[in-house]
Amino acid sequence: MGDYHVHLHPHGPYRGVGPEPGDYPASHLEAYVEAAAARGASEIAFTEHLYRCVEAEAALGPFWETEPRRDLADQTRTFVDEDRVLSLDRYVEAVVAAKDRGLPVLLGLEVDFFPDTIDAVLDLLAPYPWDVLIGSVHWVGGWSIDHADVAWEFERRGVRRAYEDYFTVEAQLAASGAVDVLAHVDVVKKHGHRLPEPPVDLYGPVVDGAARSGTAVEVSTAGLRVPAAEIYPEPTLLGMFHEAGVPITFASDAHMPADAARDRNRAVELARRVGYTDRAAFRQRRRTQVPIDEEEVR
Ligand SMILES: [Zn+2]
Ligand SMILES: [Zn+2]
């Protein structure tokens, strides 16, 4: 069983933890593989953030500039500027070299979805030998929806409206077929902003879009490590994906080796509870289905 969502560097300014951004010693990649293996995960897809790579600047453009709320746009511009310190080419080289050495790793990428620039992004990514692309909505317009520094926007906008705005973009991503897997599909709950009932009316278009475009969804334990304290997606939404025949992957969204495959047993338990018996595996962006093997869960 795999962990299909793993980053090689933490966000923000370098604080001396792990190698410097853009540095990929072999031992660092191996540390992720070892941590995941200790939890029974036999392969890792590294999925660095596209927006953090300098090569993404032209394709993504200054996407915050369309944001009418100046405070949100300013936070995003500053954050992206600070976080964009990686090279896509060097990242790909490092993961491909690890694959060539026989490590059980896959070349993936976490692709930021903006309806207006996704075609340019796919053009940028076309020459690289990806095994899997996962897709994320981290920004709604210029609002960094999962960033704690601007979580006050939920109050200003209203929680229901924030959910509507988020799931409108997520549904476009799901329907686009641009990526292989939807990442943290209900990340809008990250900071603990909740609606009284699961918003199934907003979930519907996301689930339908994924089913029609043949896009899988990840079961991510990252939600357990934030105020939401709940796996992405929540049980009602994961049940809807299962109903619609949408495949799953398992994900930790680790940004350091210690988090690789973290809480994986809880993700497997949830997936089984809503009816899944297998998960998706990817090679060169081709999907196969693998049984969720009981004895692999530790
Ligand atoms: Zn993400
Ligand atoms: Zn991630």
Briefly, what is this?
This protein has 298 residues and is α/β, with parallel strands linked by helices.
Most strands sheet: 7 strands, parallel
Strand order of the largest sheet: 1-2-3-4-7-8-9
- The number of helical runs is 10
- Count of extended strands: 11
Q: Which term fits the overall shape?
A: globular
Overall pLDDT score: 96
What are the segments in which pLDDT stays under 50 over at least 5 consecutive residues?
none
CATH class: Alpha Beta
Portion in beta strands: 15-25%
Q: How would you name the CATH homologous superfamily?
A: Metal-dependent hydrolases
Small molecules bound = zinc ion
Structural class: alpha/beta
Along the chain, the helix and strand elements come as EHEHHHEHEEEHHEHEHEHEE
Number of domains: 1
In the CATH hierarchy, the architecture is: Alpha-Beta Barrel
Distance between the termini: 11 Å
The radius of gyration is 18 Å
CATH level 3 topology:
TIM Barrel
Helix content: 25-40%
